[in-house]
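Sharing a chain and its predicted structure for anyone who wants a worked example. Both blocks are below, sequence first, tokens second.
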Amino acid sequence: MHYVQVKGPLLTPTSIADADRRGKTLVTRDPNGSKAYARGAMALGVALGLGELTEKELSNEMIARRLDLFSSVASTSAGGELKNCEVLLFGNSPQATGDYRIGHSVLVDAIDADGVRAALRSAGLEFEGNLSKEQAARVAAIFSKSDWGVNGVVRGRRTTMLTDADINYERHARAAAGAVIASITYDPAIFVSSGTEHQCAPGESVIAAIVRV
């Protein structure tokens, strides 16, 4: 198993009102602020399902707080249009049959070009330095998360991602990671998502590559 994509619900005014009617206590009353808890809970569910964590290690209280507990292959996002989780699993056949192979790696930050190359090699693409045009044509898809660093610091440098009043920090992170990936694959058709709670270690994010055999 190289990559698990999960999309699930977040709080909405309707669901908040429903919780109030049922006498339930919410972790937050801010729909946008519930994203981190939703993404984190889904990622921990992936970790539990794949055996990366045990049920004894998990509790409601540690979601979006104990970020040292995580899945190394989960990519999760939350939206108000859903009431249930939608899950896609990406893995290779044990017999290695078929026209495509998937591999994955971990980006240590949003500008980790070596992590991008590692994901491509994990999928079976053999190359040194930069991809040739023929090798680049074999890259069928790239899925990646993006992170803005621990406390807004990337490789010892302060970024403005968390303090820019004009652009949401998630947009900054996606743009940075997407540009780095496209500079290696020569193709901007990339899926990049942000918000990495319990998805790899703090500051890191998963990247998966699908390559034509």
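Comments welcome. The CA atoms of residues 104 and 119 lie 4 Å apart.
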